[in-house]
Design goal:
single chain; 164 residues; mainly alpha; 60% helix; elongated; transmembrane; membrane
């Protein structure tokens, strides 16, 4: 039977707070951009992209509203999880490493939350520009960079945890 994990008050690092502010500002800018462009959007907008970034399905412009909705729900959900690192599952959690594991967990959740939200910022911006015929396809170097940052940060987290 598993023993109960201690609840520690882990302060969010200053860099994580700054990352939150930056990402919230970028997300707000993407929403403002979407609102300003809304009346110019055609009825059919890109709704799905192939592996090369080309549009492979079109849908109603109302589908574009799913991106900010999902982005907000994910950000808020991960923000709530970030506050409760004792609720996570850990490998090798011991009394001598609980605090560092929780610190890693808080930082991991913050980075995952914010990079995931940056992905939504990117998709809102790119989908809007493709719908308005400003560009032809997703900017794949930026898209791949965001994915590398997301999955790379996960890899760094798991590497650090395994070293404990």
């Amino acid at each position: 039977m598993e023993t109960k994990k201690p609840k520690l008050d882990i302060e969010k690092p200053v860099v994580a707070k700054a990352f939150d502010v930056l990402v919230i500002a970028l997300f707000a800018a993407a929403l403002v951009y979407l609102v300003l462009q809304w009346d110019q959007l055609p009825d059919r907008i890109p709704a799905h992209f192939g592996a090369g970034g080309e549009v492979d399905r079109y849908g109603s412009r109302m589908e574009l509203l799913l991106l900010p909705i999902i982005g907000v729900v994910m950000w808020v959900g991960m923000w709530m999880l970030e506050k409760y690192p004792h609720a996570y599952n850990y490998l090798n959690l011991r009394p001598d490493n609980v605090e560092i594991q929780y610190r890693y967990g808080v930082l991991f959740m913050n980075v995952t939350k914010n990079i995931s939200t940056l992905l939504f910022v990117f998709l809102i911006w790119q989908t809007t520009d493709i719908a308005l015929s400003r560009i032809d396809s997703l900017n794949m170097p930026i898209f791949i960079t965001i994915l590398v940052l997301l999955f790379g940060s996960m890899g760094v987290y798991f590497y650090k945890v395994m070293k404990l």
